[in-house]
């Protein structure tokens, strides 16, 4: 049995862009993102500090 623990996520979209449209920058202190993953993915975890902490 092989368990794939990593996958490339190719579609991450900034949902609440409060600045110039489509520049992918926002002034929001809590930005929201839409992440599209393959249907066989059960869990997505996010790290914003290089992998020290996971959410």
Task: Tell me the β content.
Answer: 5-15%
Radius of gyration: 14 Å
- What fraction, in percent, of the residue positions are helical? under 10%
Spatial arrangement of strands, main beta sheet: 1-2
pLDDT below 50 for ≥5 consecutive residues: which ranges?
Answer: none
Task: Tell me about this structure.
- With 55 residues, the protein is an all-beta fold.
- The protein has one domain.
- Helices cover 0% and strands 15% of the residues.
- It is built from no helices and two strands.
- The radius of gyration is 14 Å and the shape is elongated.
- The model has no long low-confidence stretch (mean pLDDT 83).
What descriptors fit this protein?
55 residues, mainly beta, two-stranded antiparallel ribbon, elongated, Big_13, Large repetitive protein
Overview in brief:
This is Large repetitive protein. Residues 9-54 form the Bacterial Ig-like domain. The chain is an all-beta fold and 55 residues long.
Could you give the topology of this structure?
Layout: E1 11-14, E2 33-36
Antiparallel strand pairs: 1-2
């Amino acid at each position: 049995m092989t368990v794939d623990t990593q996958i490339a996520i190719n579609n991450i979209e900034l949902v609440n862009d409060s600045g110039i449209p489509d520049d992918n920058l926002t002034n929001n202190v809590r930005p929201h993102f839409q992440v599209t993953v393959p249907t066989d993915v059960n869990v997505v975890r996010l790290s914003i500090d290089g992998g020290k902490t996971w959410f």
